[in-house]
Amino acid sequence: MQHFKTLSSYLEYLDLPRSEHPMLSVFNSKEDGHLPCPRQSSPPITNDCYSISFKKYVEGNLNYGRTKYDFTNGALIFIAPRQVLQWDSSVVFEQKGFSINFHEDFLKGTELAEQIKKYGFFSYSVNEALHLSPKEEKQIASIVKNIEIEYQNNQDAFSKEIIISQLDTLLKYANRFYERQFLNRKEISNNLLEQFNRHLTEYLESGQLQEKGIPSIEQIADKMSFSQRYLSDTLKKETGKTTTEHLHLHLIDKAKNILLQPNKSISEVAYELGFEYPPYFSRLFKKKEGISPTEYREKYKLN
Question: What are phi and psi of 157, to 5 degrees?
Fold first, then answer.
């Protein structure tokens, strides 16, 4: 797989114009203008740059990570360094919108260098691109215009600081809009919880706990074809509980049934549930139920 360490080599590969800055490029279409068109197709590639793009319409197969883009009009797209990109000749871009690309080293020594890693939209599956309302689109466009103006000006001692400040503002607005998108997706979120519960129940009932141990959230998310970060954020927004908390609820519920079987010790129950260390199971059970597994067994044992 080809990897591009510099912004210039990445842009050259895409057949895009050279940038005004060695670590930053800004392409922004005017009212009647168009963005430069990237190469028609590409096998899987990676690079060391962040990309923030707004496309009015895309069709065809554009792969990012393990998923295909699934969006219609007004999608804001975020790509992080070293994410796998791939597209074929069926992709059709309407050449209006903007594209900002910057090398990760452009942020070195700034607060944004660490803050940007906390934005979940850089790690979500791409079928969760951010859909903007017309009002939101105008807000983002005004920020991008400020970045473009500074980018086109002669560079001075203040240029980088101003651009990074504007990038920070853009990402803060994007985060706000993602919050709105999550809140407006209750039906999808409920379906996601149902899928999560179904996959987890199937695993617990399949007898794999003793053989393979407790499944990781990453395993479950992968099985559902979502990123771990997106699954966790969506369930947290909708239910108030993290994916780990949901997993623990399932394990504790299963533990209660097993504990009522008097022929099994607490350690045996823990091992059957996939816990490598029985004391950890006992601590988790007491934390969730307020009493120890032994106390639960005594309180609810079958007569």
Answer: -65, -15
Contact criterion met (CB below 8 Å) for 266 and 293:
yes
**By three-state DSSP, how is residue 76 classified?**
strand
CA distance 85 to 75: 17
Task: Give residue 66's pLDDT.
Answer: 42
Contacts of 163 (CB under 8 A, 6+ apart): 24, 147, 150, 151
Helices (H) and strands (E) in the chain, counts: 12, 12
Separation CA 218–CA 226 (nearest Å): 9
- Domains of the chain, first to last: 2-184 (2.60.120.280), 187-300 (1.10.10.60)
> What is the residue-wise DSSP string for 8-71?
HHHHHHTTPPPPSBTTEEEEE--SS--PPPPPS-EEEEEESEEEEEEES-EES-EEETTEE---
Backbone dihedral angles phi then psi of residue 22, each to the nearest 5 degrees: -65, -20
* Under 8 Å between Cβ of 43 and 86: yes
Lowest mean pLDDT among 49-58, 77-86, 135-144: 49-58
Confidence (pLDDT) at 111: 94
Average pLDDT of the chain, as a whole number: 82
| Sequential DSSP letters for 197-218 | HHHHHHHHHTTHHHHH-SPPHH
